[in-house]
Design goal:
Layout lengths: L2 E5 L3 H7 L10 E5 L4 E2 L14 E3 L1 E7 L15 E9 L1 E2 H10 L4 H4 L5 E3 L3 E2 L10 E6 L2 E7 L7 H8 L10 E3 L7 E2 L5 E6 L2 E7 L2
Parallel strand pairs: 1-12, 3-8
Antiparallel strand pairs: 1-2, 4-7, 4-13, 5-6, 5-12, 6-8, 6-9, 10-11, 10-14, 14-15
Amino acid sequence: MKIIAVGMNYVAHCHELHADENLPEEPVIFMKPDSALLKDSKPFFIPDFSRQVDYETELVVRINRLGKNIAPRFASRYYDAVTVGIDFTARDLQRRFREEGKPWELCKGFDSSAAIGDFVPTDRFKDIQNLDFHLDIDGKTVQRGNTADMLFKVDEIIAYVSRFFTLKIGDLIYTGTPVGVGPVSIGQHLEGYLEGEKLLDFYVR
């Protein structure tokens, strides 16, 4: 099982963190190991190697067929469920790695850095590219997005990624985060919603 993630996929978020950079012309792809997966409402433990771990709330797509070099017009056949996830990022490490031109794996792929909610079948939704999602912390909404605002749509991402990696059943694609990322603290209660339904619920320790 692979965890594939997309960076800089919402315009406002690009301006939020990288105001001096041009918008990407192709999807920005990075990966997390399977040990990054945090599921079943287990708590997230803030790692001791970072002073700032940020939440990044995202729509997550689950691959249900083996695929390689998938055409965009057929990409919708290759996923059957979606949910809300959080791409936890050790922001202080990321800033340093970017400045030094180093890879992102350590700040993005550490243990439990890919929180995942309960999956919902895609046939529940009329249009995957028009879904509202949001994150509440301690009962207050801190981040909100809609998949219509993606720079690269879900089917485009799948087609692009499948040029480089064979997609396999159970692979997960984190499709990018909207504006509003921020740090988490010990004791906080995080709840993620998709189209008003709570799919993600856990505490920070």
